[in-house]
Queue: 4 jobs
Job 1
Amino acid sequence: MDGARLPGTPTDDGDRIVAHVDMDCFYAACERRREPPLEGEPVVVGMGFEPGETHGAVATASYEAREYGVDSAMAISAALGRLPRKVDAVEDPALDVADAGFYRPVDMEYYESVSERVRAIIHDCAPVVREVSIDEAYLDVTDETDWNTVEQWAARLKDEIRSTVGVPASVGVAPTMSAAKVASDRDKPDGLVVVEPGDVRDFFADLPVEDVHGVGPVTAEELDDLGIETAGDLASADPDVLEERFGERGLEIYSYARGEDDREVTPRGRPKSLSRESAFTEATDDRAELGDRVRSLAASVADRATSKDALYQTIGIKVVRPPFDVNTRARSLPGPVDEPELVESVALDLLDEFEGQRVRKVGVRVSNLSFTAGEQASLGGFESANDDTATTGPGADEVNDDGASEPAPDGQVTLTGAAWAEGDASDDAATPAVDGQTTIDDFCK
Ligand code: DCP
Ligand code: MG
């Protein structure tokens, strides 16, 4: 493969290859790992199922237990009603042992240790990994494989996890994170679904709108009111209506439904850039109002950089003119600094170019980050999911820390006119190659 491409940046044809790995019924699979007779049996992991206990919930259920209607987050009493405990069934002639299951208490320490092993394999096989929960990660594998061979690659990753750690995984592969996530869920358990470039919008079309990134149950209900039930409906909806109803987020979910998703797979830990944006309720060309907003965003971004011990070498602004005209400008400095006044003065300077123009959203960003000595990258492990960007309607702010594993090494700066959403991977240092691993390394090659 072309060694010049940095991890996380598009291939020549613009398509990244993103894999999403999600372990199958993870806690239950962990229990089976240490208690093999549970293989093939209905297994429920949760709390509150011992005699005398009344409260508790199901953390997860094996796929055999799901056939009885037992699932995550269900009250344990409801689960026991559908699937009695095996130990109770053998004692109680009114219960059928064949329709009973094995209940096990949650043991996070053990699940974390299994997760750690899975993570080790994933990191050895992919240069860029974003862990999003105890059993879930995104991988950018553009450099590891290509569209002709990615299915085999993913099958081998699954086999490697299964044979080395002893737990099953499902993998989705697609050119975007959103599609890869949906794909990994499509054929569970032990699933492997590849969505090729060009097929993403079709792949989404018939899915319920909840499957679109950024659409939760409340938004789904509101969309339903608008007659939008599927991702396909959302993709062909009127973006103005969506914006009016949901603000900026309306446009985001519209894009995701269309298969457009520029998010890069970036490791958690040190951010690649820090930005803050703010939308006006009504577009404005009032220089004083714009200046005030930029000043306060600049102060907030600089503050965040200081709190993260981040030095920045590039300061930029984003100016969105109605309806969707996104402009970014950035200026590089001779060296990395932590100077809040400079963020403000450069941002205001860059804003001058838009004098007299109506603006509906402004943002300030510092990028090309490096970190002061002593600050360790804290790759959070398979932590609970925590989206970096919280987008809200007009008048509210959006915070965005783009993750990256390493600081920029030598201050290469791109004065980009591209939207921030496209990221600035040119500032991103390549992750060092894996070395020394034997079996896993062989597999990775
Ligand atoms: N979990 C939990 N409570 C929930 C959901 C999940 O404690 N309401 C825990 C138990 C799961 C683990 O998180 O095993 C991973 O969550 P997933 O949503 O990935 O669920 P599973 O891995 O169990 O099942 P699936 O095969 O659907 O991924
Ligand atoms: Mg899972």
Job 2
Amino acid sequence: MKIVAAKKILKANDQLAEENRERFTSAGIFGVNIVGSPGSGKTTLLEALFVRLKGRAKPAVIEGDIAGSIDAERIDAMGIPVVQINTEGACHLDANMIAAAARDLDLEGVDLLVVENVGNLVCTAGFDLGEHLRIVVLSVPEGDDKLAKYPAIFQGSDALVITKIDLLPYIKFDVDRVIGDMVRLAPQAEIFQVAAIKGEGMDSLAEWLARKCHAGKRTADNPAPDHS
Ligand code: MG
Ligand code: ZN
């Protein structure tokens, strides 16, 4: 029987992630890793973003799901190059999967590569994919206690997007508590509040992402999450 320590796997992943990042950077591609629970509205957020980024960025997408291609079909319907990864049970993407999926993508002219991770607030936190920026999505129906319960994923993210804020009148969700927790966990992170379908808050999020994309790779004051 072979036993492989989780720490070793993470170390190998970090090395591959660094290679991905260098490849994307030298190709002029800005990588974004979108993480969040199932149903938090990640794909809907991407649809709303891409409409607003038209003419300002040329995106491509890697979709990560345990099964099926529902999300990839939605992105494909927008005419955006997309590859679906089926993890067949695995609850997160890793840098190796991203390297393979990127080879299957036509990245000609692409300057924004968005990875929609498997819906999961737990182990997605530990796997650097080689992105330049990580955005964590939290929807109002999930509750305002998630930062306290799953701190690692929020701690390592560059931005928090609170989605479905149009549901605030119907759900007990303390926005100030969430913002306070995020400021404690990730003081440098940007915080956005959006209702993606109605469009509320989407312009400023798109504006910020376009600026980040053009400014290029992750800088020293915005380092990659530490997995040690
Ligand atoms: Mg999705
Ligand atoms: Zn996992």
Job 3
Amino acid sequence: MKFAVTSKGDSKSNSLMHKVRTYLQDFNLEYDEDQPDIVVSIGGDGTLLYAFHRYKKRLDKTAFVGVHTGHLGFYADWTPDEVEKLVIAIAKTPFQVVEYPLLEVIVRYQHGGRESRFLALNESTVKSVEGTLVMDVEMRGEHFETFRGDGLCVSTPSGSTAYNKALGGAIIHPTIDSIQLSEMASINNRVFRTVGSPLVLPAHHTCLLRPVNNVDFQITIDHLSLLHEDVKSIQFLVAPEKIRFARFRPFPFWKRVHDSFIAN
Ligand code: NAD
């Protein structure tokens, strides 16, 4: 089996990365940065987001596991003290895999019929850079509302505990194939009206945004931020691909929610 190890880049994560790499090689596993079967991400959730984007072209072949060198993460749930146990578990393949849904984002441009496709593990946001963002929101091809405000966030179930949660969105269990649309400071008065509640869409239901005014806006995909011009529409859908996490012990999602937000 081939493996890769990614690090947040700080000294603690780097030294743990070297340790994990040496241990796994001692077990005769092959280090392969380009085509790993398993990626051990060391740092935090952000490090796993980077690893996901690095290996997003081979999601059907690569599984991920996260170690946190700071606070407990949603994707990074192993502690530095547990890496020896983790290494032994990885060496004793085959391992169990759990799959989580991803978000597909398709940006279509006004000219030339161009489009770009992105995958998000947490969420994609559309935010005004200056002034009020005005977007027509379509659900399954039908006009739903005209949004006016700071922005909109579309999250995956596993991303529902991240930015989405800060926007008052619901926490969605990752076994539910869905995406969630939540608002950032919408303008609501006698003239302008949005639904106000976060909306959860099942697989195959598209949500499409069409810019109405000429305000510059920013599209984010997880930690990545892209400034877009000439955008005709942005489409969101549950992606056909899934991310695969290597599971070596039970750590139920609701326990992770409890330990992260209530107590540990
Ligand atoms: P970062 O390091 O500042 O991460 C922000 C925090 O989000 C960290 O504490 C991280 O552990 C946590 N986080 C990431 N994914 C999570 C998840 N799925 N569930 C629960 N917590 C999660 O920034 P980064 O490393 O560049 O990560 C980008 C992410 O930061 C974005 O995907 C977005 O979800 C999040 N974010 C959150 C807010 C907010 O809560 N107001 C604002 C901007 C971005």
Job 4
Amino acid sequence: MTVIGLDDTDSREQGMCTTYAATLVADAIRETGGRVDRRLLVRLNPAVKQKTRGNAALALHTDVSPETALGLAADVVDRLAVGDDPRTSPGVVVADGDPAAVPESVRRFARDAVRDFHATDDAVKLAESAGYRHRGWRGGRGRIGALAAVGAWAAFEEWTYEQISYREFDRCGTPRAVDEDSVFAAAEAAYPDAWDTVDTEENQAVCVPNAPGPILHGVRGDDVNAVRSVAERIESEPVERTTLFLTNQGTDAHLRAGRLGDVEDGRAYRLDGRVYAAPETRAGGHVFVTLADGSGATLPCVAFEPTKRFRDRVRALRVGDELTVCGEVSDGTLKLEKFAVRALNRVETVVPDCPDCGRRMKSAGRNQGYRCRACGTKTAGKTEQYVERDLEEGWYEVPPCARRHVAKPLVRGGFDAPTHPER
Ligand code: ATP
């Protein structure tokens, strides 16, 4: 088996994308009589600044020789890769052998590429020490993603599917002609085996990208037949080709366990804390809430405006609620992707009502408790009262329209508390 890793062949201006380049390499392999057994679409650290959009890298598992593989991939990159875009820095890495049996160092490199940062030199050194062929263009930064894609099959246990359908090339750049009713009907029929196809509340066909580029739609899910059938049922302009990818999308592969006081920018965490400062809606509609933990550390968290109705969940939090939060830390603030309510603070302290007449009591002076002006009744202090909450225990998430590629939708299951999935 030969593994081809490919990354950074896309350009903002031309709106190309690396999945398309991988598809062209697969075609070239087939034209030479070779076989492609698997195509991986691997999402890497979403905090990487150089990414064009979703920080995707691609791998093909094939039976052609490593020399042929490198030659075919290099031809496609030469053909596509967008000479004038200085931000494009393509890379190809080719490994000989079983993708499940890459060296431990390569497996670790792939794992870390989703959670951390790598340098091109380290990727090149590691590829060479593993005996892999590689080629870079304009600095070849894409070899980071390409090597991670080579190691991905061994690095990740959980895989989902995306059926990507491409536009006819001449139409790229024009508005996509997709019948939305057919998207909603197909999504409904296949849910939850196919997820994040639409956002029913925002009335948005999430599987149809807005960005320029050759993708007409991409249908994600846990079941091959479900994603295929949704793609087939969508009525649209002609589909030039359609391809199934195995992906680490929707798996939370980017999250690491951490503690509130130890977080670093550019990494994504799962953290426990207690609401320390009440939620606050700021300019632009972004909702902030600050958490604290037992050590005294605090961390601001934010639900940005595009997370839409998720912000109502955050606004419903109260000081004292115990949470687990998930998201990437950027500029010292955690960008919420989901959170679990572990315990709700259902108690508030209020000025007591008079036990005799029921009127609200008034302060009897500093540190002197409360007194009823009508009856003269006195009490020593405030009293506790039950608060009705419109949150429940369990997990809440951003809606499909705001999901990050790698974030796991609640509907996929496997969470440690009840879930409140968005669809
Ligand atoms: P598209 O979605 O259109 O394919 P993209 O968002 O995947 O684009 P790229 O153009 O591929 O973005 O750019 C990402 C760059 O970052 C690549 O060169 C890749 O090698 C590099 N990269 C990926 N992961 C890491 C990481 N963890 N540390 C450092 N660099 C990384």
